[in-house]
Amino acid sequence: MLASFHQLLLFVLLFIIISSVEHGSARVTSSFVRNEWPAVDMPLDYEVFAIPEGYNAPQQVRITQGDYEGKGVIISWVTPDEPGSNKVEYGKSKNKYEFTAEGTVTNYTFYKYKSGYIHHCLVDNLEYDTEYYYKLGAGESAREFWFQTPPEIDPDAPYTFGIIGDLGQTYNSLSTLEHYMQSGAQAVLFVGDLSYADRYKYNDVGIRWDSWGRFVERSAAYQPWLWSAGNHEIEYKPYMGEVTPFRSYLHRIATPYLASKSSSPLWYAVRRASAHIIVLSSYSPYVKYTLQWHWLREELKRVEREKTPWLIVIMHVPIYNSNVKHYTEGESMRTVFENWFVKAKVDFIFAGHVHAYERSYRISNIHYNISRGDRYPVPDKSAPVYVTVGDGGNQEGLAAEFIDPQPEYSAFREASYGHSTLEIKNRTHAFYHWNRNDDGKKVPIDFAVFHNRYWAGGQQRRRIKKNYLKSVTGNN
Ligand SMILES: *[C@@H]1O[C@H](CO)[C@@H](O)[C@H](O)[C@H]1NC(C)=O
Ligand SMILES: *[C@@H]1O[C@H](CO)[C@@H](O)[C@H](O)[C@H]1NC(C)=O
Ligand SMILES: *[C@@H]1O[C@H](CO)[C@@H](O)[C@H](O)[C@H]1NC(C)=O
Ligand SMILES: [Fe+2]
Description:
Layout: H1 2-20, E1 28-29, E2 59-65, E3 73-79, E4 87-91, E5 99-102, E6 104-106, E7 109-110, E8 113-114, E9 117-123, E10 131-136, E11 143-148, E12 159-164, H2 171-181, E13 187-190, H3 203-220, E14 225-227, H4 247-252, E15 268-272, E16 275-279, H5 291-302, E17 310-314, H6 331-343, E18 348-351, E19 357-360, E20 363-364, E21 378-379, E22 385-389, E23 410-414, E24 418-424, E25 429-438, E26 441-451, H7 458-473
Parallel strand pairs: 1-23, 12-13, 13-14, 16-17, 17-18, 18-22
Antiparallel strand pairs: 2-3, 3-9, 4-5, 4-10, 6-9, 7-8, 10-11, 12-24, 15-16, 19-22, 19-23, 20-21, 24-25, 25-26
The structure holds 2-acetamido-2-deoxy-beta-D-glucopyranose (NAG) (3 copies) and fe (ii) ion.
């Protein structure tokens, strides 16, 4: 009798713990598998890959954040025929380009493929929350675009991020991109595996990087995509004499890594509106004493949750995921960084790699000790939510088989194509959606309201009150 009373107590306690985890409702494995189109790349003569008219016209135009605070952008483009100008003309109204910035140009070969002339140009010291117009090229070949700078760094600045991963260049990729563009999100957190050009051989690798660049331009020229690299960017191809890792990626994709004191474009951080975003490289060394390990340790010290309450980490390989595909590939990084993520109270970790959608509860597994127990993920209010969005729609198709039964830590999973949006409302609240590509429509399927890890909980009210008092007394 006594024992069963204790058991009941334990059960009640466990129930309280589990239901206090955010949205600890029943775990869901959606049996829905929406496989819209066959997983094949769109043909090179398809309209989404069209080459802009005019001799040497700039193509594959894209922008990314160019500094640490959101007042700069790096504009990148390719000129196919000759180097042309490295200049960007820009200004605050259309057709009135008061300013110019000068960039750099590079080119590379991959097997016998010769790249076009790849330009990167930093446009800096912009005003916050302002629309800018920019022009590339000249005369008949000139092309014009625009973008909006983010609001000033502020703990209550609302901002909406999109999260896209493993995109590729199939009809499903196009569906994901079109749905993303309807979402109203202001910047993309790209969780790796861009073009899947490495699925091709010889000169077609370079050709498919170019087609992909023209494909994503419709979004990436108008709002920043923040890049992280995946396994499809490594391109280790000894059979054609190409063995330098990330060769195409590093020539084509610019990141503001120097602004966060990083030694490599593959890992870096930026602050944008109310978010601090840390980009990690799953395929660069990260164990203790490596450059990435040192850098992350320092970057976590630079995080100021009073200014940027939302701490977001993106990487390619998920740390918690329960798909059969790529099972446990994130374990090595988990053993190195998970305790830091928990200690830093990271809000979200977004990853890709697995071609299905999954969201975890807040859990951690940091008490493992090689000589005793505690080797299970347990509910942990300081832990991040782990989200896998590797469902962009590339030519490898969906990872439709999940491990059964669904682990305790897994909140929602479904093997369909789609993308996510994270709508930050203020320092305490963010609305999160995963949107499925469904028969040509964008359908929000998984929804959650998240409370900030720094401002949530017992200290939240005290901090807000203190800040409020500061703001009314002008005592900063
Ligand atoms: C880069 O472009 C220059 C000028 O056209 C050319 O001479 C050179 O061979 C190219 N380099 C590579 C690596 O393709
Ligand atoms: C691991 O467990 C052993 C035995 O309980 C203990 O002596 C040791 O201090 C623990 N190590 C760590 C790093 O916690
Ligand atoms: C933050 O946003 C949430 C959701 O929109 C809202 O309910 C809450 O009142 C806001 N908090 C403050 C302090 O404005
Ligand atoms: Fe991958």
